[in-house]
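Quick one - first record:
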Amino acid sequence: MSGRDINPFADPKEINPFADPSISNFSVGHDKNLDNYNPFEKQGGKSATSPSYNTSPAMIEPTNSDPPPTYQQRPFVASNPYGQTTERQRQEELERKAAELEKKEQELKRIQSSAQKENNFPPLPKFFCVQPCFYHDISLEIPIESQRTCKILFYLWQLYSFTLFFNFITAIALLATGGKDGGTTLGVSILYMVLFIPCSFICWYRPIYKALKSDSSFNYMMFFFIFFFQIIYDVICALGIGLFGSCGWINGASEVNNNKAVAGMMFVTATLWTLLAIFNLLLLRKVHSAYRRSGASFEKAQVEFGRGVASNKNVQNAAAEAVKGGLQSGTRY
């Protein structure tokens, strides 16, 4: 019977949806098992609802019979926030320690050689009538941090000596070509060359050498005072004022019409004087910076000057003679 033939007004007792033979066969086969099933009945001495569990602890048996490796403590390696090791920092630290060690070795050599030093400047031959008067060794007597400055000053003094010599040669050429004031320029240039080369070494290079060697405030002051006039002298020589004994821009320009070759030599001399003035000014600032870093001062210079005068044997002898004469004159009266 199809779904359309069902009478909705029929008696519900007469309509049995489970009357279908397929449903009835399935329910008959399973109702017997459900009727006889007891969930609380023990099966084989055990409850059906309580499964058996193994309460013994689990054991993990090793798959290899070899003993575990021994623990070795590794050194701690510091790392920066970016995950890079401090290998470069360690390398810089080693280089710094090596530089300090080299500095100490240089200082030790300088101290050891100071007791056995022999005058070596100016480097004159042994058969010469005049022997070296000073001991000059920048690598041994000057500290490492000041050696570069001292070498530059020494090269500057050599350039100054060469300029005086070239000024003398130019003055000879000026006199030979009949230039204006050639004789006066030659005579004064000879005086400059003979007098100023040794005086410049003694008056301003030697004081700065001693100042860099021992941080002497007195030698610093002496260098500043004399080197200032040295710069003024270089500027005047570069100008080439007549009858001043130097070949510079002014007398070189006046010689162009007379002899261009001599005028060219005079312009070269003027250039050397100008470079000397510029380099001297720059070196003066550099030495002043070293002076500020060394802790030197005018008060220390006064103290050093007083100690130097008091420790001078000639001054001591003169003072002793003065005191002795005063005592003798006092006893007479």
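second record:
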Amino acid sequence: MINPVFVTVAVVALGLASAAAIYRIAKGPSLLDRVLATDVLLSIVITALCIDMAVHRHLNNLILVISLTVVGFIGSVTVARFVQDRREEPRDDR
């Protein structure tokens, strides 16, 4: 059986981390800050789902966790490639 104190500490930590990520999404000075904060928030949601599965001893959310993980990875890679393409300076091929 999982100790309720550990669950409470995890919920509080995830809540504080979520608040910090939402603050960074709202106030982020650049696009990369906002994307990184969104990725962190997605990781927090995935962690909360995993904690729920561990506490209640079920695997109902496993497909959702895997789907969110794949979506987060593909989204992060896509944005990183987009930003990299924008930062490359145009070359003069004469």
